[in-house]
Amino acid sequence: MKTYACLFVTLSLLTGLSACKEPTIDEGILPFVTPTSTDSTGGTWRTVLLTSAAEIAVPQPAAITSDAYQSELTAVKNGLLSATPEQNTAVNYWAAGSVQRWNQIARLLVSKYNVDAAYDETTGQYAPYDATKPVASAPYAARLYALLSVAQYDALVVSWRAKFRYNRPSLERQGILARVPILDVPSYPSEDAAVAEASCQVLAYFFPAETAWLKAKAAEHKQSRVWAGACVPSDLKAGEELAAAVAAKAITYARTDRFDRARDPNNTWESLRSRAPYDLTWKSLDIPARSPMLPLAGTTRTWFDSTAIVRALPAAPPATTTPAFQQALADVRDLANTRTRDQWRIAEFWSDGSGTYTTPGHWNRIAEDLVRQYGQNELRSARTYALMNRAMQDGATVGWRTSFTYFVPRPSQVDPTIKTAVRIPNMPGYPSTHALLANAATTVLVYLFPNEAEVLKAQAAEATLSQLYGGVQYRFDVDAGARSGVAVGQLAVGWASADGAR
Amino acid sequence: MRRIVPIAIFLLTLFVDPFVRAQGLVDGFMRGQRKASLALTYSQESFDRYYVGTREIRDPNLGTVSTQSLNLYATYGLGYDLDLIVNAPYVRTEASAGYWPKQEGFQDLTAALRWEAYDYKFGKTRLSWLFALGYSLPLQNYVIDAPVTIGHGSRNLDGRTMLHFKAGAFFLTGQYGYIRRGAVSLDRVANYYQPDNLNPNSGSKVNVPDVTDIVVRSGFSTKYFYVDGWWQQQSPYSKGTDIAPGIPYPTNAVGFTRAGASLYMPLIRKFGLTGAYSTTLDGRNVGKSTRLSGGFIIGL
């Protein structure tokens, strides 16, 4: 009797103790990474939007002996002694790396905006397009990540050029003990201010409704570096100004890259479908049917040589009447009927559909781990992202152009008994853009991180097959996607091998 | 009366539906020392409307979601005031529209101890105060993050207390419980948008919101039949999400108000038949389901 009572009381107490408010997801805290190199020749690296870093002039800073500079320095020193807990939180948050943090912010916004128009039960229609809430699906996100990282990269190349030209010594070399690890490069202009300003402006172009939020983030980011003891306000100002000029270039590029028409509100894709050189064409499997995802995204201006991109386009798929197609269909059916739990996991892991940061976002996340692991400094991590993201945007362009040429139906359209482990993307299937993007991204990453080749290739292989396991792609989709992806990735590798970074 | 202690009521709240499985395993009737019972029931449940947050909708891409389950439920009296309860359902669920595959398999194994702490007699009436503590864990690694699933895959600790009043054939039971649900690992990285979510790559481990559970049940229990009616309200306790694209299903804050009735008829000595019905009155991130079940119970 007594033992029961004790048992119950103890267990009830334990239950009660555990009944506290919990976070929905756990966020780990990662240690700071000290970059392994300063890349002092970074100012000579090849820029993407600018003809060269010299295109943007950064004014000569005041000498460190000047009164203006000395009073700034004193203010920073005094600030270090009176930091508030909120300031420390901001300092630690942004010290993880400005390029990484803004890439994360971009992914966060993509996952927020990557939501299809809602179905309205009362009207039986999908909600009309709202220009303030663009749908951040894969090609949209690929372009966003590319423009963001290109603007960051160009702004950093300009910063690096000015840093080593004017050589204003870092605050640490002037006896200031910073609160977090600081890369030992000249402090003028601030690389953090450059990244914050460029990122804020580019992201605000994509998500105008977030402008105020982004500006607050950027202001906090810049200020956090003064609180950290990394730079003085005049370093920030110079970084901000040069980045504004780079961001303007990025936005001009975005206005003229023909992506604006990708959404195709007048449904001109239907005439493309009627002319498609394929015997059975795609139709939407959503109930009610909806227009496909960004049908004209395949006409977007490419980052790399457009004739080489055209060569990377997949060849025509086998017609539905051919034995090759029938065999491919039977393969998907067999896989779907005997799908293992592990195949389901793989399909789900790589699907990155609606409400997520998309497939390009997934590869940005993988790149983030590598950038961190290899201690890349801001400039070099921006280069990594810029190379990979340009390859992925061009990969998405290749994929979309091919999909909206052939209009190959998804397996479940040909055989409705095929059930899928992931939501069927609302667009024609050939080629698999998951396979394409995976191979484009890993081709670049393997070049940049040769020691990780084995892991990256395994990831690419799994991602390539994932949507076949999911039941939404044929094997010829994933094979064609993988081939095109490698071809596009090679273009980025070609660029990287001649951009001056080594 | 104890000899035909009805089990129907346990099974009733042991419902299964594609968005949530609440397990109100326990009622106020003690088994009795070294007495055992075994129940096997089959239930059919379906919904074509569900709650997204608290808004009721119908998704033409899901159609009607129907679930069949086979429940094995056993109780054993370890002592005159302590029972062991064990339950294992086999569940199959599918949607009538769209392309989500049918899910099927053993769901969660639950074991609970029920202790009658106090027993007061007032003339011909009795009031007892009971406590129960249960633990459940998934029997296999089933799919948890899809519109059509058999469970949310968490390991749960369920603590509850109840007051059971009996006057002749009439009884009234009120119970309050807290279900602590453990974190689960998704097949993917959770990267959904939350304003206070600083980092969009927090990993695959997500929390399943805890819930509180209130059940009020009343009816008549005689040697020849048992009948009851009940009302149950389960509410999310910890902060959770609402169903939306990209949001992991297990993190959704699930709650509901349900009502139902059940019947048990002994046929020959220790063998009887049971039937039950329940319906959902209101909910949050859950199917607006109705459920019909039937089965047999053997006393040992």
From TrEMBL, chain A:
It comes from the Bacteria. GO terms for molecular function: peroxidase activity. Keywords: Signal. It comes from Spirosoma sordidisoli. Residues 1-21 form the signal peptide. InterPro entries: Br/Cl_peroxidase_C (IPR016119), PAP2/HPO_sf (IPR036938), V-haloperoxidase (IPR052559). CDD domains: PAP2_like_1. This is Phosphatase PAP2 family protein.
UniProtKB/TrEMBL annotation, chain B:
It comes from the Bacteria. This is Uncharacterized protein.
